[in-house]
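Exercise 7. Given the components listed, write out the predicted structure of the assembled complex. Treat all entries as one system.
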Amino acid sequence: MKKLLLIVLISAPFIAQLVVLPFVNRIDPIIFGLPFLQFWLFLWIVLTPFCTLGIYHLQKSEGSLD
Amino acid sequence: MQQGNLTALSITIFVILTVVLIGFLAGRDKATRSSVEEWSVGGRRFGGLLVWFLVGADLYTAYTFLGLTSTAYTAGSLAFFAIPYSVLAYFISYFFLPKLWKVANEHKLTTLADYARERFDSKLLSSLIAIVGVLMLIPYICLQLSGIQDTLQVAGTGFINVKVVVITSFLLVALYTFFSGIKGPTYTAIIKDVLVWAIMLFMVVSLPIMHFGGWNPMVDKIVTEAPHLLTIPESGPKGVAWFMTAAFVSSLALFMWAHAATGVFTAKSADAIRKNALYLPLYNIVLILVVFLGFIAFLVLPDGTDPRFALLALIQTSYGGIGQGLAYSTIALASLIPCSIMAIGASNLFANNIYRDLINPKVKGAKLTMITRGMVFIVIGLALLFGLVFPQALVSLQLLGVSGMVQIFPAIVISLFWRNQSREATIIGLIVGLVVTFTVYSTGTSLGIYEGFWGLMANFATVVVLNPIFVKKAKNSSSAVKDYLFNQTLKEEQLVRKGA
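Answer.
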């Protein structure tokens, strides 16, 4: 279970910021004053540190952080 | 060129001189230049916050601001590739930088080439990495140079001889770098980062209000008048595929740059680096906003404006003397301070891994320190020479910088995790990667994909295919770094047994 979560947290920033780009490459809807592509990129600036933080805590709890 | 503004020019010159003075004051203590380790990586004593400022100063340069706005001005949302690029670069760095830092700390290494030499027991590989590093870094320093040159040109046309002022300010930077080492750019980086945030936020808030009556009216105007700016082209030589591969390759390349590595090695603990990997992505909020400044320039400036001057011209038409002065001095600092760190990185590579590893292996101690410090003048001198005399010759090297630098990724990062990676396969892979990158670039056969991506794939493939041939030797060879990386648990067990 922890391993699965780790894999999700590691791959999410890559999938969100590279793989799905062709699908978020659009103007509408405009959210918080940002066209959708820019909003999406902005969102992942904020979400990526949470992924890193999650990985950090997972590793710490496993004791694999040296 | 339109006449500059005297108030703006005075503010800019005043800020530059203040920062140079602080750069000198940072090195009052003689210990800052007592050894290569003190001078280039501050004796590895910097805490998380200082490393943050230093890495931020490294990576957000005048070229970032001027280059991104001019890309946004001409090519629209392609400029946003810088966002996933830098966010992913920090994310990826979380997985290898702490380990790399620990090896470097344990074995007193100050450059990436040092690490490769110790890991593979190969001076050929270390000098090769150093040559690639210096060759790619000098054009990068030149970019900073043209950044400050453009800024002073806009600020000071009609008042000063721009070339003379550019040369003087770079020599002053070289001098304080020689004198204070990494401490110089670190303390001045704090001023630069605070100014960058304050000025960029001020511009992002005030410019839409001044020109469009607010942020939302501005976005509406871009959507109706220039919607092509807001999405990435679906196809063409630079479309979505280019965007993805460019962002990915650049993110792998980021910490392969000598100046980025220098910043990282100043940290006092692996945890300081982990924390930086965690928080540095937030710095990119500034970058998104900067790209929008390029869109504003597109809507506001008259047709035919030189894209290179998009941001500077926007500042010039929008603000009075004081506003212009603060904005210009921010860009000038964003040019000078990274330059100092880059010069330290390049000098370190030159002295340690080209001069010592290749030419004079016996040199050490005080003499090596002096040579490393003295190289600052040669590196900045070369950058000035190329930048002012042969600006055209540098264009290709600048475009290929990232694609070239990423080719050392297998030698530096993969080797931290792969015990049996062999020296021979790594060296051949590096060379194949460079050759493929340059061939794809010069023949224009990139097929809409970032050049460095082809090079890196060829590099990886070569290492994987050739490694089995040399694996026997790699298995039997050992070095202190290799033992440290892979036999640590073994060693601990032995210690326990001895103790018992």
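Discussion: The mean pLDDT of chain B is 84. Chain B has one domain: 6-396.
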